[in-house]
Amino acid sequence: MSIEVTGRVSVERSPEDVAQVMFNPKKDKLWVRSLREVYPMESGLYKKGARIERIGNFLNKHYSAKLLVTKMEENSFCQLYADEPFEMYIKYNLKETEEGTDIALTISSISEVEFNSPVSIIMKSIQEMIDGDLAKLKKHLEH
């Protein structure tokens, strides 16, 4: 089965302020709730070619993911390739608005996802995870 799930939130901060958190691997644990550890291989914000290791849990499954930044547009877009807990792209899209920034976070599987649950349950769990992460990000940014 293949999966694509998107979550959205609006925050009262500029895209630059949002990018300082979302595009900074050292701040991933502030808002990505499933992460236990994050190990950036380069310093600073994400840039094309950067590598990151993330360790966490997904649907009660422990993973150690190797991530690669495959596309990057300063303060507006970042695409990460991840090999675990399933092969996927993670996309962060920031759009400036009059009130601040609209954020879209999309998870798209690249290959078939092998879990012992129906696809509808997996997609619902991913949607809840994304929505919870974005709510935590919003709270952090607007605090």
Could you walk me through the main structural features you see in this protein, from its secondary elements to its overall organization?
This protein is α+β, with helices and mostly antiparallel strands. It has a single domain, classed as START domain (Alpha-D-Glucose-1,6-Bisphosphate, Chain A, domain 4), CATH 3.30.530.20. The chain is 25% helix and 41% strand. The chain has helices spanning 15-22, 28-31, 119-142; strands at residues 4-11, 35-40, 51-58, 61-73, 77-82, 88-96, 101-109. The protein has a seven-stranded antiparallel beta sheet, with helices on one face. A hairpin with a 5-residue loop joins strand 5 (77-82) and strand 6. 24% of the residues are buried.
Key terms for this structure?
143 residues, alpha+beta, Alpha-D-Glucose-1,6-Bisphosphate, Chain A, domain 4, seven-stranded antiparallel β-sheet, 3 helices, 25% helix, globular
CATH architecture: 2-Layer Sandwich
SS-derived structural category: alpha+beta
Number of domains: 1
Distance between the termini: 39 Å
CATH homolog superfamily: START domain
Radius of gyration: 14 Å
Indicate the overall shape: globular
Write a brief caption for the model.
The protein is 25% helix and 41% strand.
Secondary structure elements and pairings:
Blueprint: E1 4-11, H1 15-22, H2 28-31, E2 35-40, E3 51-58, E4 61-73, E5 77-82, E6 88-96, E7 101-109, H3 119-142
Antiparallel strand pairs: 1-7, 2-3, 3-4, 4-5, 5-6, 6-7
